[in-house]
Amino acid sequence: MTPDELRAVHDALHRLRNELVAAGDHEVAAEWDDNVASNRDQDQSPLVEMGQTIASSRNRARAEQLIRIDGALRRLAEDSAEFGLCSSCSEPIPARRLALLPFATQCVPCQNGSEGAGKSRHRRKVTDYV
Which whole-number Å values give the CA distances from 43 to 21, 50, 55, 122, in the listed order? Predict the structure, then answer.
């Protein structure tokens, strides 16, 4: 990658990191309100649980993305000559992919291969199990 491309990726990573940190965690309601706790409103209980689950899931995803961003920043600082090469095939990751996902570690074909490993290539039918 050229120095300008590396600088653009570096800036994009810092921008993404700052946005995620500034947004903060999604609030997970720790307490049930009195109506739900006393079972007076049984319809609200699943909604509160669903809200907690969604907020928790978003917080986990945010933390995972921060880890990927920090890893990319570390790789960039440690060995900028190797940054932007696929961790699987060592081919350059296209600049367009890095512009969209500056923390990407694999090219699209290798990413697809690693995500599809062990999965069937065709859709299963009910008759496949009989």
Answer: 34, 12, 19, 40
User: What tokens does 35 get?
Assistant: 């109506």
> Which residues are CB-contacts of 71 (< 8 A; sequence separation ≥ 6)?
103
Q: Per-residue pLDDT tens for 84-112?
A: 899 999 999 998 898 888 999 999 999 88
Give the HSE-up count for residue 79: Cα atoms under 13 Å, Cβ half-sphere. Answer: 4
DSSP H helical segments within 24-129, as ranges?
A: 34-37, 44-78, 95-100, 108-115
Distance CA 54, CA 62 (A): 12
Q: What single letter denotes the amino acid at residue 3?
A: P
Domain ranges of the chain: 3-129
> For the segment 45-80, what is each residue's pLDDT rounded down to a tens digit?
777 778 778 888 888 888 999 999 999 999 999 988
How long is the chain? 130
Dihedral angle sign, alpha carbons of residues 30, 35, 36, 37: positive
Residue 104 identity: A
Q: What is the CATH number of domain 3-129?
A: 1.20.120.910
